[in-house]
Amino acid sequence: MQMPEPNQTIISQRDALAQGLRQIVGKDWVISDDAQRRPYQCDGITAYMAMPLLVVLPGSAQEVQAVLRFCNEKGVKIVPRGSGTSLSGGALPLEDGVLLVTSRLCNVLAVDEHNRVARVQPGVPNIKITEAVSHLGLCYMPDPSSQLISTIGGNVAENAGGVHCLKYGVTANHILGIQAVLMTGEMVELGGAYLGAAEGELDLMGVLTGSEGLLAVVTEIAVRLEPVPEVARVISMSFASVEEACECVGAIIGVGIIPAGLEFMDRKVLDAVSVLIKEKFDDRTAALLLCELDGTAVEVDALVGVVSDVARGQGAIELKVSTTEEERQRIWSSRKLAFSAIGKLCPDYYCTDGTIPRNKLPEVLNKMADMSKKYGLDYANCFHAGDGNLHPIIMYDAAKPGDLEKAEEFGADVLIACVDAGGVLSGEHGIGVEKRDLMTHQFTEVDLQQQQMVKCAFDPKDLLNPGKMFPTLCRCAEFGRMHVHNGNLRFADIPRF
Amino acid sequence: MTDTQTTASMRPATTQDVADILMDAASRGEPLVVRGNGTRAGLGNPVAATRVLELGGLDQIDFYDPDDLVIRAGVGATLDEVEQVLAQKGQYLPFEPPRYAGLYGTNGARSTLGGAVSTALSGPRRILTGAARDFVLGVEGVNGQGDVFKAGGRTMKNVTGYDISKLVTGANGTLAALTTVTLKVLPAPRAEVTLVLPAATLEEDVALFARMRALPLGLGGLARRVNASGLCELLVRVEGTVPGVAGNQQVLNGMLATRGGMVVLEQEQSRALWAGVRELDCLNAKPDELVWRVNLPATTMPAFVEQARSAGCINRFFVDWAGGVVFSTMRGVQPEVDTLRYRKMAEKAGARATLLRAPDAVRAQFGAFPPVSAGVAALAARTRTAFDPAGILNPGRMTVQA
Ligand SMILES: Cc1cc2nc3c(=O)[nH]c(=O)nc-3n(C[C@H](O)[C@H](O)[C@H](O)COP(=O)(O)OP(=O)(O)OC[C@H]3O[C@@H](n4cnc5c(N)ncnc54)[C@H](O)[C@@H]3O)c2cc1C
Ligand SMILES: Cc1cc2nc3c(=O)[nH]c(=O)nc-3n(C[C@H](O)[C@H](O)[C@H](O)COP(=O)(O)OP(=O)(O)OC[C@H]3O[C@@H](n4cnc5c(N)ncnc54)[C@H](O)[C@@H]3O)c2cc1C
Question: Could you tell me if A17 and A86 lie in one domain?
Fold first, then answer.
């Protein structure tokens, strides 16, 4: 993984820049010494590190504007950061760039119970929104596993998903309005605090969502609130083969049921987890599905019956259905502990998130087994089966020379297999630096150029989070010139209309 | 209805033909009207162009994978056909795309999928299941230089590059001539009933809507209209599994008992009723009337409606999305004056007023879509340039030149 060469001239101006920024945000909120900058060197991907030139923590949207205006004038790059849980290196700092951290922008600004909207600042951790409205019987639906820590601003930037987005949708489906600051310091308000507030102009809010901090810094978000479902029950279903478990996923959806969540865990994950939860799984079990159903009590009871029948028909060897909230929590604990359990099995692991059509699950999982042999690295599978969002966990040892590179190649092969199966490189973690160089496998040059042209409309100087998402830097001026060349007609000899 | 100066239309059958037409037009800087079959050509501002690029010929269904809840089709596939294909597997387009054929005096059977995505119109179910933008997974299209590009994909989740699919949804043909779209579909609810009850005041009704929506009752429609006998009534659509609907209906019976006079419409009757709501039939818009859509917070709706009615800006109206949208007619006597007044009123209330139907001259002068701030307008203009540097795709459809 290579990043653009840092600009030494900018680096040499560090002290002056720090001084200028202190005038904007106050002296305590610009971090320049080594010890305090160190925790910001990486995000959720610890394999990639860089020391940010400076770390700035603005205390208001106006300060964000002023910081961006200042950096834009000086030609200094900005990397936005929420809590730094990104699993694609989206918040990886640049040595010649300012890391703009939103952790001081952490207020729920307003809750509109009647219209079911909350206005929040970007640094609010996802869970805090639900906590602020739970006394009203409401919640904010998207629930990434990182929800205790990850910020709503980071969720918007990565269009985060979660276990319940199978039924309720991802972040983009729950955002009604965004206030954002462009690199020039100009503020734009998109949509608003009600359904339909964005009608009648280009869906700029839609393109900002999932733009990984490359288009603008989000300074306020209006999110939809939903009533908390009356009951939720989970069914744990064991299968003697991975194929049967995968086929059961399609079968459940095929009968017209969209579960609230539908998760897959393979035997390796179960073995790792059983140590932690001190519970044994049936020896015959090769894969386990967790299927959550929610709604009103009568409805859920009926759905539990239907799904159980489907699972038995698909060869499930054991079914456990939660009857109380404690049981539900206990059954889910295996899934929640999965990643930390695997973490105890190996010095390091690496997890990607390619997404495929659901019916390609068996095919791609089989390919993974072959890749594991090829690279001599062990792996485990624990993923959002309901929406075909894979999370292969590749185990390696960073202390062993060459192991990280092998793990990366293994991960890349999995992602390529996903694209070849009709899927995409990322379902919820984003491209960042991690999957950047694979973009050409999914998109043609024209596709990528069209995307980069959008970047030019927002950030023509390419100062916001450059080096992420695209394998090449944006050359806005050049794109402009290319338009002129394109005047000559392709296929000039075929008949015109 | 609009774009009346057009003299010739081109109806390509393949993406490559579309690309050739656009490259040719771009080389001469010739603007084009882009449309599906033109059934909703009256939506948006008139476009000053002499030739039409009609995409209705791209009407194949590429694949439909019911177990994976996904369909990909050419933009010219009709909504009727797509919905029929889905219905055979018990599935549907959850955003309930309106045709508005009655409004524009066109043939709704020819309304295309591409038109539904490009206009991003969503029906009454939006409050429960989402809008058109929430179901577009991927697109293929041709930009204003004749370059064929694709964006998005066919999987349920995707954060691979910018979400260009959202950007082109609702762009009304201004960014690209779309050629195929990939949509997420859902199993249609097995059961539906509609409870019809007498309306009270707008304030009381909106408060009642909110009380009902505070519970997870699967309400796929909450509207208030004047019925054929001139009576104001509330429509409450309950959807879901058979036991779920029965249970939720019981809860609602309890909540609504004090109102009295409730009538229950079962399955087929309920479907027919909401198809009419979706098409704004109950507005009974007369040919010379203007038709408006105003999006606003439900809580501010009653005061806004009262004010607009007494100012003569609303003639007849009905309310959908649990109070979050008002559809209304306006007398066509002094359309310029009233349009300006109504827009100002909406702006003051923090609402977005879209002129769904009006004479060409009115839309050309005031714009069919509500104005946005100068900053957003400039950003949108730069974004359009990123797709269509020569400005040949439906120029002016969404924006009024200052
Ligand atoms: C244990 C664990 C579990 C996870 N589970 C899930 C999961 O279930 N689903 C899922 O989708 N993801 C998951 N993630 C990934 C990650 O939590 C999400 O991507 C999350 O949205 C990142 O939020 P953050 O605040 O940490 O953002 P950061 O990591 O700080 O930043 C992420 C990206 O957002 C940009 N950004 C941040 N704030 C802003 C802003 N205000 N304006 C503009 N750009 C901004 C950054 O530049 C960067 O590109 C998980 C991560 C971990 C470590
Ligand atoms: C065939 C027919 C069609 C009619 N169509 C309309 C019409 O399109 N618009 C109209 O204003 N009246 C219409 N009316 C008249 C309407 O039904 C009532 O008679 C009238 O609103 C009652 O007025 P009011 O002064 O008693 O109550 P008001 O105080 O005017 O209204 C009581 C409450 O009902 C609301 N309200 C009144 N009329 C409507 C309506 N049509 N839609 C939604 N909410 C309403 C008001 O905003 C108020 O909150 C129609 C009558 C007939 C017979």
Answer: yes
Taking contacts as CB-CB distances below 8 angstroms, the residues of chain B near A455 are 162
Chain-chain contact of A204 with B145 (C-beta, under 8 angstroms): no
Residue A388 sits in a domain whose CATH number is 3.30.70.2740
Residue with the smallest CA separation from ligand 2 atom 37 is: B232
- Domain at B191-278, CATH class: alpha beta
- Per-10-residue mean pLDDT, chain A, length 497: 92 98 98 97 93 98 98 98 96 98 98 97 98 97 94 98 93 98 98 94 97 98 96 97 95 94 96 91 96 93 96 97 95 90 90 93 95 96 94 94 94 97 96 95 95 96 96 77 43 36
> Which range marks the domain in which residue A315 is found?
231-339
| Record: contact A200-B352, CB cut-off 8 A | yes
C-alpha to C-alpha distance for A264 and A287, rounded to whole angstroms? 7
Q: Which of residues 343-372 of A touch B (CB under 8 A)?
A: 355-359
Task: Give the CATH fold of the B281-366 domain.
Answer: Alpha-Beta Plaits (3.30.70)
A chain contacts of residue B91, beta-carbon cutoff 8 Å: 256
CA distances from B265 to A148, B176, B238, B271 (A): 45, 43, 10, 9
Residue of A163, A165, A202, A491 to mutate for B, most B C-beta atoms under 10 A: A202
Q: Does A315 touch chain B (CB under 8 A)?
A: no
Residue A294 belongs to domain with CATH number: 3.30.70.2190
- Chain B segment 284-343 residues within 8 A of A by beta carbon are 293, 295-299, 321, 324-325
